Amino acid sequence: MSPAESRRRKAAEQLVERGLDALLLSGLQNVRYLTGFTGSNAMLLLYRDGEADMFTDPRYTVQSKQQTDCRVRIAKGKLTTSVLSELRRRRVRKVGFESDRLTVADLEAVKNELPPRASLEPAPGLIENLRMVKDASEIDSIRKSVAINSKALDAALARVRTRMTEADFAAEIDYRSRRLGAQRPSFETIVAAGARSALPHARPGDAPIGAGMLLIDMGAFYGDYASDMTRMVYFGKANARYKRAYRAVLETQLAAIDAVKPGVTAAAVDRVARRTLKLHGLERAFVHSTGHGLGLEIHEPPRLGRRDKSRLEAGMTITIEPGVYIEGWGGIRIEDTVLLTATGCEILTPTTKELREL
Ligand code: ZN
Ligand code: ZN
């Protein structure tokens, strides 16, 4: 059985549990997960017996055949029109839809033409829940993605100069990453020098990097799976304030990683991070959550924040990335991609976390 087929079987069990006859999937990553199809236009009807019909347009006639092992319907017009005729043909009654993914326009289109005895039911997050725990082929892709990402940083750091701009250095990272086999960055590479590192999601600018701290947050896609890593480097001799803050964030990151094991809630790991930063008087400078799941998307459930009560399980891949941000001074974040194991976790990211001066 292909990975996609066994995922469809698992997803179909969820339909049975929820009393749905079919599920209309419009999230492209969810369609990719259940079929292997990577095109930019697709919908999937999954039925409670595990069968499925994928809908796409004529541009993907060949590609869909190569990538998927379920039935493919090539729609000449709107995908929703073909979906509706399939629903009519099969006399499907209860149809779940991804209320967090389906556009209002597509929802209206389906609703208006729904067969008389059929009904629509919101079923958000169903496939995302399954996606949290990765299978062997997914973990393999994530490992390769992480390895490429770390090698790309090393290769780029070997060429970095303080007179380069943030944008130059970000371009160097992206170039190295693609040369090493990445499909593309898993998000826009962040390179933030000096006080600009206090912006957690800084866009690389056109000023020279200069002396002082530099924050680099980067990720790669390999085999459609993401990696994510943040590292700091310091150009010149690091001052005492930087060293203190760096050690506090590193201690926090290690404490959080130590707390990652099956059965623990996402929120509990976040609590450990906040408690550790508090010991250093820095908890108020930590303005985001401790981490997030990643896979086909760079941000996936679970979210390692205060409110996420989901329990961690073996096979999940998450980031651990505490940080402190001080306006006018700068920000420090350290981020690894980690894999939940039966007893704890494995840090996938091989890049050193020693305080680095260049
Ligand atoms: Zn990141
Ligand atoms: Zn991240």
Search tags:
single chain, 358 residues, alpha+beta, Creatine Amidinohydrolase, Chain A, domain 1, Creatine Amidinohydrolase, 10 helices, 19 strands, binds zinc ion
Count of runs of 4 or more consecutive helical residues: 10
Characterize the main sheet.
Answer: 6 strands, mixed
Q: Distance between the terminal alpha carbons, to the nearest Å?
A: 51 Å
Overall tally of domains: 2
* Unreliable stretches: none
Report the structural category. alpha+beta
Query: Roughly what percent helix?
Result: 25-40%
What's the arrangement of secondary structure elements?
Blueprint: H1 3-17, E1 22-25, H2 28-35, E2 43-47, E3 52-56, H3 61-67, E4 71-74, H4 79-90, E5 94-97, H5 104-113, E6 119-122, H6 126-131, H7 136-157, H8 166-179, E7 184-185, E8 190-193, E9 212-218, E10 220-222, E11 225-226, E12 229-235, H9 240-259, H10 266-279, E13 291-293, E14 300-304, E15 317-320, E16 323-326, E17 330-333, E18 336-340, E19 345-347
Parallel strand pairs: 1-5, 3-4, 5-6
Antiparallel strand pairs: 1-2, 2-3, 7-10, 8-9, 9-12, 10-11, 13-14, 15-18, 16-17, 18-19
Helix pairs in contact: 4-5, 7-8, 9-10
Bound molecules: zinc ion (ZN) (2 copies).
One zinc ion (ZN) binds at residues 228, 292, 319, 321, 335.
Please, could you describe this protein's structure?
- The protein has helices spanning 3-17, 28-35, 61-67, 79-90, 104-113, 126-131, 136-157, 166-179, 240-259, 266-279; strands at residues 22-25, 43-47, 52-56, 71-74, 94-97, 119-122, 184-185, 190-193, 212-218, 220-222, 225-226, 229-235, 291-293, 300-304, 317-320, 323-326, 330-333, 336-340, 345-347.
- The chain has 358 residues and is an alpha+beta fold.
- Helix 9 packs antiparallel against helix 10.
- The protein is elongated, with a radius of gyration of 23 Å.
- The structure holds zinc ion (2 copies).
- One zinc ion binds at residues 217, 228, 230, 321, 335.
